[in-house]
Amino acid sequence: PAVLRGLAPEVPDTRFEDVGGLQEVKEALRELVELPLSHGALLRAYGLPPPRGALLYGPPGCGKTLLAQAAASRCGANFLSVRGPELLQKWLGESEAAVRSLFETARQAAPCLIFFDEIDSIAGRRGGGGGGAAAGEAAAARVLNQLLVELDGLADRGGVFLLAATNRPEALDPALLRPGRLDRLLRVPLPDAAARASILASRLARCPLGADVDLAELAGEATRGMSGADLAEVCRRAGTAAIRELVAAERSWAQQQEAAAGGAAAQPPPQAPP
Ligand code: ATP
């Protein structure tokens, strides 16, 4: 549909093994999405309504998006990803149509997992506070209503599952969390030391490490309170610093060779170091 141009469903290549820690969430999520996405026919045969959605909640950067991708990938299902704020801003005035298109696209691409990030931006508690940007709130309320209509209308066929994510579960409208909607809540916490070690190991899997680097030690007090995204950033900085050192060392080695060659007679060019 034109309103969602650029939104292309595809099977992600993230695997559960790529997600550090979070063992319990991974298992719960796998069970949860496998039924509607891979075994819809069995549910139908048993006359059971398929689970339609779940909510991942927890601090930013701890793997909610990765988990959603891995869950889709595990079922060989397509993955469609939207962010609440984007839905409101990018499709200003067309946001409800965008929600309809989103579900239509998902049905056409079934089995398909819809990942709806920052759901609190459209599904904040209604009628709370007063004041504020009334027009914005009204738009969000209309989008939420449309989302509820689409969720309730997901046929008993299964094949489409909505996984929403938020950092602020307490701010959500309870209507969204009723049975038959996002009725499973899965907490995605900050990584503990063991999870931090496994995130560091997976991030650095292809980096040559110094003999004195002890990942278990790094995963201890030094990184307590860090999210997976923080750890990924630490690894990126350490890796780029190492590459810079390597480049500088190569350059100075080449300069030394040049100086030596300038003194003596012309030499054949040196081989680059391995
Ligand atoms: P947000 O709430 O901001 O949307 P999120 O919980 O969805 O965050 P992700 O987008 O999944 O977080 O993670 C951001 C990045 O941090 C990932 O691309 C990855 O590099 C790293 N990361 C976070 N958590 C993990 C984890 N458990 N294992 C491996 N990498 C992780």
Question: What key phrases describe this protein's structure?
Answer:
alpha/beta, about 270 residues, binds adenosine-5'-triphosphate, 5-stranded parallel beta sheet, 9 helices
Q: What is the number of beta strands?
A: 5
**What strand line-up does the widest sheet have?**
2-3-4-1-5
Low-pLDDT ranges? none
Helix content: 40-55%
Strand residue percentage = 5-15%
Global mean pLDDT: 88
Radius of gyration of CA atoms, rounded to a whole number: 25 Å
Distance between the termini: 53 Å
Number of helices: 9
Q: What best-fitting shape do the alpha-carbon axes yield?
A: elongated
Biggest sheet record: 5 strands, parallel
Q: Structural class, judged by helices and strands?
A: alpha/beta
Helix-strand sequence: HHEHEHHEHEEHHH
Give the names of the bound compounds.
adenosine-5'-triphosphate
